[in-house]
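Listing 4. Sequential folding, example run.
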Amino acid sequence: MAAWTALLKKEMRLGGPGFLIFLISQAAVMALGIYLAYRSGSRTAMAVTGLILIGFHFLYLFGYMVVNVSMEKKTFHLWLHNPLPGWSLLAAKLVSGIIYMTFSLLVIGIYTWIGYLMSGPIPLSHGMHIYRTGILVIAYIYWIAIYIGIVFIFLWLVFLCLRSRMGRAAWAIMIAGMGAAVFLLVKLTQYGIFAAITEWGKLPTGFVDYWISSGVHVYSDPVYLGSYVLDLFVMALFFALSAWLMDHRLEMF
């Protein structure tokens, strides 16, 4: 555990500059929201700006991983020679990204909450639970961000494995492979296969209404547990494959 903690601290140091870049950019947009609020007299400008920034956190881990792996190019050989198993190395990257994402969301969350309080009465759907809905949205942002982060790690490792063997042709192979994957996903959707494996375990309307509203059903589309189970399976599979590539197929180039 001590070795993994040291690795996590190393990842935190490596990801620090990227976090500062994101935070400064975020602060600039937040300042713009404050300026618009006082310049135009719109009391909702801060809250709207905050909500937009919160929405961009769907891609936070993706951006963090891109910066992280770019900065680690020169020392990647040291990372590969770490005696820890591949899954622990990848977990350190993910956890460091999640920690920085949490800090970022905390800052913008406070900003948005202040903007919401300053906005005065905002017309909402009847019986809507603003704070419960906010918790649900944040949880969903984490879910999608982690999903995208794991997929990126897998694609990055596949690319490194291909580049160590195919050289520059790795780019063409990756583009062709991703195109084939998108085509396959479209076909699976058209043939109803996705619906068959995900549309089960429909969540009760009362459960959805508890988190979003009371009195009026504002969410008309059914929510299926199966879709989240599939997402969890895909994340676990891609993470396991990434760890396997780290341990058995990734070579120095």
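-- end of first protein; second protein begins --
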Amino acid sequence: MKFFKKHFVAIITLVASIIGGIVVNCVSSITLFENLLFSILILLVTTFIFDFDKMFDKIQEKQEDFALHMNPSSIRDYQSVDVCAKMVDALMGGGKHKVDFVSLDTQIRTQVKDTRRPMVELLNKFVSDKNIQLRYLTAINSKNFTTILNFMYMSKCAKRDSYYAMCDSNVPFASFYIIDKKYLVIRTPYDTSIEKHYCIIEDVTMVLLFQCWFEMLWKNAEIIDTQRELKSLLSGMNDLDENEKGDICKLIDKVVASDRR
């Protein structure tokens, strides 16, 4: 039955051609052999047309597969931030890149300051690599201020353009970053009741949505780059003692001095 459905046109054409050839042979001087040759010719032409139609459908399917391949959509899910960082580094490879980084979640899962950790190494690469154009947006507080100042110092020492902005927010907005407007890297918020997920998303629509969010946040944030702005932030951190403020103040002077080199 499947064979008949698949070759319906060819079978009907063959039967009609043979019957037609026999009828013509009965009323004319054309031989049966000549009629059979004529019928076979018709069959071949019809089969070609039928097969060409199937071939055209296959070509369309190939085109759709190619289009899907050119616009891939995938989610890589990891339970470790360092494994995720290694994959991000591998995906980036060498060359020039643009990174838009949002870090508004004031809590992180670990306070371990191991410079050999892949995530720390990746952040240092974002900050100091001259081939990476970085826009870093964060909610500055007494816990992360020293880290941001060190990032700024590394950027200025590397004589590269990195831009840091502050967004005043008490809401733990999603932390994410976008690479080359192609990859979206996002994680679950810090909460002991939530399972850890670090995702690399490659999807045009999702990246576009988060890129729009980034641009809106960046537009409404305050660029922090001068000594006055940095010390103004420090003066509002009342949970720091005088020694801590003194150390941060020296670091601010160090950042500003590096900008004059």
